[in-house]
Amino acid sequence: MLKKKRMNIQLYRPQNIILQNFIEYFYTLSRHANEEAITYLTFPNIYSMVSISQNATISSAGNKVTVQFSANNPMETGLAVRYKQPLLIEYIGAATEITIAFKPLGLNAFLSHPISHYAKHEIIEDVFIPFDDFLERMKAIMAIQKDEEKIAAMEAYWISKLTGVKHPFLYQALNDMLLPNHEEMSIAEIARKNKISQKTLIKHFERHIGKKPSDFRKIVRFRNALKQKTWESSEDNLTDITYISQYFDQSHMIKDFKVLTGYTPKKFFKKLSSSHDGKITWIFPGEG
Questions:
Q1: What's the whole-model pTM score?
Q2: CATH code for the domain of 251
Q3: SS3 265
């Protein structure tokens, strides 16, 4: 389980019924000034992650992102969409942060440009300032003392920006990849089903979701394996997880895990820390 002494994490589901169509969850993160620096690995997922950090400077080098307290910098906002390898996150000093997990195509419903306009980097998160009033409103929201009131204000802000999104085939393609307990369709079969070329499908995935269909599917399998492992109590269930998560075999699972996490499944699950029924997962390097 997640070691709560390291940082305080609280997860919130959207209360607004409309927002539930676009946002999977919010979580708040806080640390005190006297706590030691902490470093952890986080892993690719299918969501578009928007982070808002109060009194912080954020710097990146390779796959490492450092969030450091800075009284002189009232706000940092970032977007993580395209990363396909583990990110090493370091917190130094006090931290106050809200992260929003937008569902696939969810963030698009609020933006005036496709996701590719904002998500440029594959390794690190991008600076994210989508609206003229964004930084000002985020400062006001982050100044609210109670987390529940912060989240309510955040929901009201995003509702005010909702314009909706329509696409002729991406929702159906996503359903074909995300629906459980069905025979997996190949990328070519999904393209044919929607009467488009495979090249067109790939182009629209990259533009509106920020990933190629093959990378998206790889992450879906990985996240399904995480979910299955969270539900299982047995330590010796990797074979079942392999097939339930729609890997071809254990060699396929091991290969994908090494790309997405840097570990074999056995080592990964041994070192994994998680909270909120596996919604938030990470590894503290050097432990386990």
A1: 0.92
A2: 1.10.10.60
A3: helix
